[in-house]
Design a protein that fits this description.
Helix content: 40-55%
Strand order of the largest sheet: 2-1-3
Number of domains: 1
Order of helices and strands: HEHEHEHH
Largest sheet: 3 strands, parallel
Structural class: mainly alpha
Number of helices: 5
């Protein structure tokens, strides 16, 4: 017995969701060594970029002494936005960075991305992993 393509298993149907092209976004930037003011600036800049793209965005950036876990937990308290963007990058985002992530989130529930490392950092990573390749 075969099922048609139109029929979905109730278990699969439970996990299926419609794309969220205009959904609001909670932006959480986790502070790094530069301090919470840089994280706050990055969160506000990212919120502005989302707003220019037609999405409502709320910036949440606060340094909590408990580290990133506590910071993320406190940022999520009372959140009502259906999408949450968590970043540790304090450098400015561009539409080229944000566009692919927003496009991908319409097809799945979790999206992970990162910027390309500089050539020097790539070489350093490769050299750092070299002993493991030789073993």
């Amino acid at each position: 017995m075969s099922a048609s393509q139109d029929e979905l298993d109730p278990f699969d149907d439970h996990f299926r969701r419609d794309p969220l092209p205009d959904a609001a976004v909670l932006v959480v930037v986790l502070p790094r060594d530069e301090g919470p003011h840089r994280a706050r600036e990055a969160a506000e800049a990212l919120s502005d970029l989302l707003a220019r793209g037609g999405r409502q965005a709320v910036a949440a950036a606060a340094a909590i002494p408990g580290g990133w876990g506590q910071t993320l937990e406190s940022s999520l308290l009372g959140a009502s936005a259906p999408l949450i963007l968590v970043s540790s990058a304090e450098e400015p985002w561009t539409p080229g960075h944000l566009g692919p992530l927003l496009e991908a989130i319409d097809r799945c529930d979790h999206v992970v991305g990162r910027r390309r490392a500089s050539p020097l950092t790539q070489i350093r990573r490769w050299l750092g992993g070299l002993p493991w390749r030789l073993i």
